[in-house]
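=== Structure Prediction Worksheet ===
Name of assembly: unnamed complex
Input type: mixed (protein and possibly other molecules)
Chain count: two
Listed entries:
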Amino acid sequence: MVRTKHIFTLICLLMVSNSLHGQPIWLSNRIPADAERSIKPAGMHHLASESKGRGKVKIVQWLMQGERVEDAAYFVQDSTTIEALVFAPSGKKVEHKLDSLNQRTILSFSNPEEGFYNEYVVIKKVSGDTLYYAIAKGELLNHSCRNGHAHVREMMPYKVYPQSIPFEIVRKRMVHEDFHYFVSSGEEISYSILLNGEPANGILTKLSTEKGWINSRRTDDSGEVSFQFLQDYFTPWQEINNREEYTYVLFAKTTIPEIGVFEGLPYNYIKYTASISDAYRPAKTFYQSMFWSIIVLLLTTIGTILAVYYYRSRRNRPFKEIIFDEAN
Amino acid sequence: MKRIKQYIDQANLSRFRTYFQILAFVVIVYGGYLGINIGDKTPAFACPYSPGSSGTCYLVAVQHGLHLEWSSLFGFRGLALLTGLGTFVLFFVVFNKAWCGFVCPFGTLQDWITKLRKFFGFRFSRYDEASFKKLKIIKYVFLVLLILIPLAMSNSFFGLPKVSDDMSAPFCQICPGRTIAPLLVGDTSEIFVDFTNKTTMVMSVLGLIFTALFFVGSFFKKRFFCFFCPMSALQYMFSKVGVLRLTKNGDNCTRCGNCSRVCDMGIASIADDIVSTNAVVDDCMMCFKCVEACPEPDCLDVKVFKGNIFSSTSEGFFKRYGESELADQSKK
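=== Predicted Assembly ===
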């Protein structure tokens, strides 16, 4: 019995340490079925939010682990050093809370500003001669059309914090992207992998989606990688939900030789694993048609022109003399 | 000063207006690419659906701002709405309804379509008095609906179910500006029929129908869409506090009817009403063609506060219209 208990403890420890070695972490916006009822998706980008009354809202994110999004597990906080950082759109650090609740690790913070919030959860642990440095990132857009669109262009560029986060993934903005943009299936999205603020080439990246498809690529010389999101929405027309969201996560990992000490333990290498999570929606081409719009435009134009012509021709009837035949 | 006033009164205001319209069109439609930002309380059609737009028309803010529960409407969010309305009014009062006649890019587009019609030699249409009175109500209907529908999305009226979120920004969904403004910068992404559900299908089809009607209607009727524009209705509510004014001195009016004949909107009261001093009505876009066409001195005046900046004069009338008549005669 004692031996079994020891073996069981060892397996648990291996699982925990394995969480850093082979199971990357990422932040999820998906609300668990048994979450508190006060947590609901809010806003245009359906961020999991908890209303605290009087307009105060807290964003809630769950820390997950696992490369396969569809069956990832919630990260359970243990003795590992874990910290969180949240940056407001203005670049200031935001007060946040990292809780362990119901066997889940939850990050929550208030988001009164408009724009992109960068949230990071960082776990560091030395094992052997390697420092395992895992970074889970979320880039959450807070926007309400009520607040207007005056400063959208200025707030679009992504922000990075290399002094706090040495390895991170950023999604490159599309050409005409604004606060109403959503990643859609079928689109090609580009990402930049930054090591100490500089683009890093040759980094292995893996895109994993809730629908189960996975793709791996390495970054090019400019530190960028692109993925074509598969057209994977094939719902019958009656069930189309253009606001349906599917989670996807992009992972990146690299090992660099660096000597240092962490919590009294020396290391010779740092193994970085970073993730960025987001959601994608069904492609607009699935439920929008330009062909039918041109038909409608043509029919309306031709119909209106004919109506005007008919109306005008009625008014332009040539004079017709009425001749009375007095004999009859 | 008298000579300057005389010079201005005899000037070709329509030509100045054409150049001003071109400038405003470029600034509003393409200004976004130059980093110009005129804000989101613009009293003209600056469409945010276009990537090049330098501003957003205030109707967008109204529709999104009213997507509120009653409790929020009478709280701080309601205060934000009032602040937005105040900003809009401050913008608006500077030019009064001349935002329509001089600045609005869709008004300018309609004027260019009118020039195209003249080039091809087609006769233009006018509404008769009965049709005019009935059709002018449509812009108020649009204004009321674009206020009520967002409220009905967040609140239940008389126990009825809330309106679907697919009706968000209802006027924007049917506005021809939403389809045309992106086209002007080469973006065809707003030309679509949305088959997601019946609501989106109907709204997107209506938007396309209004787009087609915008072009065809503007070809045959001057400033066709302005007659149905809810922005015009909203502006008229604050027209009386405008800095720029159009006044009429009925004592000097000889009822020649020139003003009504040249009016693109077909307003008859500018000629018929010799009692009211304020000549601006809800359909007026303050293009001041009536002032240019009035042959009677100081009958129609454009004022900034109480100072005349442009008045009708006999010399001005004959200079503007006499030249064109002579030119027509010489062509014959």
